[in-house]
Amino acid sequence: MQRVERNAARGASVLPAQRAAVMTGRTLIVALMIGALMIAPRAFGLADFLTTDEAYHWIRFTERFDAAITEGRWADTVFVGHPGITMFWLGRAGLMLERTVRDLGWIGAPTTIEHLAWLRLPGVILQALFGVAAWLLLRRLVGPTIALVASFLWATSPYLIAHGRVLHLDALLTGLITLSLLLLLVSWQQQQAGKGGWTALIGSGALTGLALLTKGPALIFLPFTGMLLFALAPINATSSRYGNGRPRLASGIARRSQYALVRFSVWLGIALCAAFVGWPALWAAPEAAIQAYVNEIIFNGGRPNGDGQFFNGHAVGDPGVWFYPVASLFRTTPVMLIGLIMFGAFAGLDVWRFWRRRNTSFDGRYRILAVLIAFAAFWTLVMTFGAKKFDRYVLPIWPSLIVLAATGIVRGYIAAQAWFVSRATAMWQSGAWFARIPLAAFVMLGAIEVGQVVWYHPYYLSYYNPLLGGGPVAQRMFLIGWGEGMDQVGAWLSARPDIRYGPVISALRPTLQPFVPVDVRDITDLGKLPINYAVVYLESVQRGAHPEIYRQFETMTPIHTIAIHGIEYAKIYQLPRPYDQPVHARFGDEIILHGITIEAKQDHLVVTPSWGALVSPKRDYTVFLQMIDAQGRRVAGVDVPPAGVGGLPTGAWQAGQQVAVPLPLPLPPDLQAGVYEIVVGLYDASSGERLPVSGGVAADAARAGAHALQLTTITHKEVRRR
Questions:
Q1: All structural domains of the chain with their residue ranges
Q2: Exposure check for the chain: N or C terminus, fewer CB within 10 A?
Q3: Rounded to a whole number, what is the distance in angstroms from the first to the last CA of the chain?
Q4: Residue 307 contacts by C-beta under 8 Å, 6 or more apart in sequence?
Q5: Higher pLDDT pick, 21 / 564
Q6: Could you tell me which residues come within 8 angstroms of residue 311 by beta carbon, excluding any fewer than 6 positions away?
């Protein structure tokens, strides 16, 4: 009997341990799945393109930060007032990893874009950890199901993926601020349960300190936290009552203030300590570091974007109050948008029920959701006051919106499941399949989310909600282009057989240079030196940069357009080959003769026409170049394709293509003294029919025949330009 009792006691003690082990195992499996879903689209193919900020700033600053840390030059870790220190530490970790694998002989000397991929990698891994940590915290705050759906939406949001893949600040700031907010709520939840919640509060403060080291807008979180602690002060710490039971307002406010002040002081102290420890410049040159921080907020964030902005079809300085709501709406996915709409509907219904039945109360989770709503609204409002606006500046509100959307999706699924189950048995004797419709729809929505992640890889910056028109509509609404697509521009240019003819010009030179084998010059070099190709990037045109330069391209035909997901990111123009004498004559509607260059040799002329294709020519044409005397007799001539013998026939020319091949015109040794005309024209190689010509100086049809163009005249045997 005693043995049985001992075995029963042993079984009773083992069972909770087994359950705990099972729960831990399940938690670990789900955490690994979320981490894998987070990291896969962010880490795969990191050597894709350079964003403008990476190309101009972050690669160079990260390398300088690494050198300063290695050499102990703490005061030299001030590069920009953002200040970006957490990103620099992550980038330095990537540098160290790159050096290690290179020293081991696993990789050779990396290219610029491969080097950038190593710098990006630690930040990508941290993004995955952010997602897993947020899921663990949300399970306690809003429940396992909503937490799981929210984590799935976070992992598959193209907007968050796009910024989580680059060496930049906004995704890093988003993760730090989000976890800090969630830990604040966990601290409040623990305090409500009488557990103090100090550990979570300290963790929140430490993450806020890292956020302050990341980007100046983290300061927005400081007053919000103070107001949040005041609003969430426990009731028993805020109420002092008279005998009639009415709370004394002044005493309640005082107690709330005292509670909030104590916790806020601890929280802020931890944040400042974390910031101090993380930024070496604060150890050696605190005044310079703080000055840079303040100047960045005042002189950069407080003014309109110096390069211009674009909103609702117009180049503007400040896009105005509607920019963030509209831009955020376009960045949602269909599933997220549906979830937000459903959340709004259910929240409105709950509020209506509350007012109808005054004795009811909201679920405790509504306080959590209300805080997330308040945070999203407060952050957006403060950022709206700033004249400088980019959609990524409100990225920190995105996880909060995702939690709200997940709540709407889960509640919608539960309501739909209840409706279908209640009608399945009433309408069909075997209605099991009917009851599974909500689950099938739920799975289908998840498949859509994953599918769009695969489809948009790696150009997640080009994602805009297809329910709102997607990229084609977005490019008429917002400033688009951060360097994405330049890799495709470079690949197309590098494949051109004439790529080494001359340099390429582009407004975003550093984002293109790593992808082409020739020098890339600034767009302002147009007209200053012979240029082969010009890359006109959408962002530059939208914000009205250098209008006098870009107007010149309006009359030209692009030889190629880089379009990604319906957005025309870049138009590539091949510039006319240089010429001495302008002509500007059109042959039919297909080919233009920009001008010519004529060189006199001892026994021949070298005529170099500068041709351009207005459209893709339909036929193979031959150029006739003739010298005729005053009586209209042909004394010298040559008939060859415009690109020369063996060159690309006109039927294979692309619209916008430019060709200039020297054509030798032999002079007869017995050429008599007199005045001779040099005429040119094009004819169909198969039929011999000449193309009609417009513009330029028409040759005398009686002597040169119809549709001929007079280029110049020569007198006697001495060749000269008239």
A1: 24-339+349-417, 486-574, 581-715
A2: N
A3: 126
A4: 543, 545
A5: 564
A6: 319, 320, 323, 477, 478, 479
- Considering the domain 581-715, what is its CATH architecture? Distorted Sandwich (2.70)
- Tokens, residue 445: 């929505």
Cα 179 to Cα 214: distance, rounded to the nearest angstrom:
14
Peptide bond into 458 cis (omega under 30): yes
Task: Report yes or no: 526 and 621 within 8 Å, Cβ to Cβ.
Answer: no
Q: What token pair was written down for 357? A: 């039945």
Distance CA 238, CA 293 (A): 38
Question: For the chain, what percent of residues have pLDDT higher than 70?
Answer: 91
CB 679 within 8 A of CB 704: yes
Which tokens is 705 given?
């025949």
Q: Is 123 helix (H, G, I), strand (E, B) or coil?
A: helix
Instruction: Look over the chain and give the mean of its residue pLDDT values, rounded to a whole number.
Output: 89
Residue 441 φ then ψ, to 5°: -65, -40
What pLDDT is recorded for position 1? Answer: 41
Query: Secondary structure of 461-487 in the HEC alphabet?
Result: HHCCCHHHCHHHHHCCCECCCCCCCHH
Q: State residue 364's pLDDT score.
A: 64
Find residue 571's DSSP bridge partners.
Answer: 536, 561
Q: Which amino acid is at 298?
A: I
* DSSP bridge pairs for 568: 563
Give the number of other Cβ atoms within 10 Å of residue 361's Cβ. 9
Three-class DSSP category at 602: coil
CA distances from 2 to 8, 15, 203 (A): 10, 20, 49
Instruction: Give yes or no for a contact between 504 and 578, defined as CB atoms under 8 angstroms apart.
Output: no
Spatial contact of 437 and 180, defined as CB atoms under 8 Å apart = no
pTM: 0.89
